Sequence to fold (172 residues):
Amino acid sequence: MMTRSEPQGPFPSPDKAEPDAAASTGLNQGALDSILLFTLRKTQAVIMHDFISRFDPLDLRPIQLGALLLIRSNPGSRQSDIAAALGIQRPNFVTMMDELDRRGFTQRTTSNNDRRSYALGLTPQGEALVTKALQLLAEHETYVSATLEPAERRQLFVNLHRIESGLSSGGR
Fold:
């Protein structure tokens, strides 16, 4: 089993945190309820808890799944492009790719366009893993979206993407 060494900051690791621990304290949390940062963080913790429990048998973290999905959708893409799409630094991405390569899920070949970079692809074992992961992901998405109507779920994504886009472009 792979250890999770992602930096966690001041919050407990999502796979270690009890999703309902804050609610059971009896504390008045009203000071945090209208702060987007805290609401998103608490929501992310319960979503991660479900993800980790579902994907633990595959020994797959969210960022690894994201990389595998992007590689599957964009075979032959450069490492730097996939890293940028995931929003992670290239050295961290290379380390993750080393792990995925070691496990037999991905392969890197010299790019035809630029011999200094690698083109990424999935191995047959990687394709099989992604197929299993997509089944689990569908279950996970259904579970975490169960309290939303389809239109509300779509609107949530619109709003989150608008926030991300506005902040990424420097707009305030």
User: Anything to note?
Assistant: Residues 35 and 61 are 27 Å apart (CA to CA). Residues 1-17 have pLDDT under 50 and may be disordered. Residues 36-131 form a domain with the Arc Repressor Mutant, subunit A fold (CATH 1.10.10.10). The radius of gyration is 18 Å.
